Amino acid sequence: MLTVELVSRLSDEQIQELCDLSQTTWWGQGRQLADIRSMLDRSDIIVAFCETETRHLIGFARVLTDFTYRAVIFDVMVQESHRHQGLGQALMEAIWQHPRLQSVEAFILFCTPDVVPFYQKCGFTAAPRNTVFMARSHEMVL
């Protein structure tokens, strides 16, 4: 049986594994290790699962927040071989239960239509009709 541990900091080996895991997502393809390190240093909250015995990274999510009004969840990822075991939902629960996020008014995330049912199970609803997603970037992957 798989046993996992929730961590808030990644070892060098786990950071490499996060870089590799990012390559399996549509939004993270091409991310470089140095940029992953920079992203981790600048993220407010990191939640990750690793296998207890091997310490291999198997799930990850991060939050950018003002700790009062809004928290935006990014990069929710679970190793393909470990999907459909409740780890994605456990990552989301770790975010909700995080002591530093208890006073946040609203959590926001962006996702593709195929994962909407997953996030609905986690309590998310569609944004109000008068809300529009907008982006500006030099080379942002949307």
| Mean pLDDT rating | 93
Largest sheet: 5 strands, mixed
CATH class equals Alpha Beta
Spell out the helices and strands N to C. EHHEEEHEH
Termini separation comes to 37 Å
Question: What's the tally of helices?
Answer: 4
Tell me the helix content. Answer: 25-40%
Provide the spatial order of strands within the biggest beta sheet. 1-2-3-4-5
Give the CATH topology: Aminopeptidase
- Output the structural class: alpha+beta
Number of domains: 1
How does this model look, in words?
This protein is α+β, with helices and mostly antiparallel strands and 142 residues long. The chain has one domain: Aminopeptidase (3-Layer(aba) Sandwich), CATH 3.40.630. It is built from 4 helices and 5 strands. It has helices at 12-22, 33-42, 87-97, 116-121; strands spanning 4-7, 45-51, 57-65, 70-78, 106-109. Strands 1-2-3-4-5 form a 5-stranded mixed beta sheet, with helices on both faces. The longest helix has 11 residues, at 12-22. The protein is globular. 19% of the residues are buried. The model has no long low-confidence stretch (mean pLDDT 93).
